[in-house]
Amino acid sequence: MSQAMPPKPRPEITEDSRPYWDGLRQHRLLLQCCTDCGRLRHYPRPLCDACHSFACDWVEACGAAHVHSWTVAHHAFHPAFRNELPTVLVTADLAEGVRLLAPLQTEAPVTLQLGQRLQVGYWDVDPSLTVPVLRLDENG
Ligand SMILES: [Zn+2]
Questions:
Q1: What is the 55 CA–ligand 1 centroid distance (Å)?
Q2: Distance, CA 50 to ligand 1 centroid (Å)?
Q3: Which domains does the chain have, with CATH numbers?
């Protein structure tokens, strides 16, 4: 017996995070950079962790990353994701020094290793929403 699939939850886009989501739609990963102390931060938020400034610019990440840790989800945290199980969620260290949590996107099952090289990719969910994904770096 099949059940109707509920819609997936969508991110709540705020004034603070709008440049991030706009960047993803252009297949660019933008990070906040504090204009007072220069510290990068991700995920988007209003305040600098280091100096508590509200002032920031946006800088584009190069897309290079490596595996910090991962988990394999066998249970959907939301019923809309149950057809995608199991899902590998990776915490990646970006080359810029901040971390990104995103699903691993692969053609076939893979064995991950700590420190393994990854590349940020983009999944166009629909014309108004793109989310980041992580892929194995083709160059090793
Ligand atoms: Zn700062």
A1: 8
A2: 5
A3: 12-60 (no CATH), 62-140 (2.40.50)
